[in-house]
């Protein structure tokens, strides 16, 4: 089970990761985008940090919906709508829940991915955050189908997401600002995929810290 407390710990952990790596994200974005991904993400998640104290009495759905609205209103560029949509769709899966079982987490991750696919119109292989989120969801589901519990299945999913992240390096960008560069986008890791990987990795680390 993933508890409401762990969801808040996850958001705190991810906020810290974004703050620590904002310059790296900006450098990645400078190569193929507007050089603002790290700055924008850090701005949004600083707002999240300020809200953490007020989230403790809410159910998981309420927490995720609050995060969604905060990110949409404070992150510029495409990242605000995409991450905001991810959290909004995820929140709908967690209505009235104080904890998530393994299948609940799958439903949440799938809903978030579906929202990003619909909002961003990107597909697997377009060199976007989808290249992390999609293989992670598929691998997590397969691991559950094979009988693994939540924590080991999540490890499998995050590993698949990491492989997807590395796979963006040789890709030709087909969506977003990076697509304007054509073949010059090849050879660079996608910044959105990078922040998406850290989103999943932060969740895994929180669950691991509690022993699953």
Automatic annotation (TrEMBL):
SUPFAM superfamilies: DhaL-like. Residues 5-205 form the DhaL domain. It holds the Pfam family Dak2. Signal peptide: none annotated. Keywords: Kinase, Transferase. InterPro entries: DhaK_L_YcgS, DhaL_dom, DhaL_dom_sf, Dihydroxyacetone_Kinase. This is Dihydroxyacetone kinase subunit L. GO terms for cellular component: cytosol. PROSITE patterns: DHAL (PS51480). The lineage of its organism: Bacteria, Bacillati, Cyanobacteriota, Cyanophyceae, Nostocales. The keyword rRNA processing does not apply. It comes from Cuspidothrix issatschenkoi CHARLIE-1. GO terms for molecular function: glycerone kinase activity. GO terms for biological process: glycerol catabolic process.
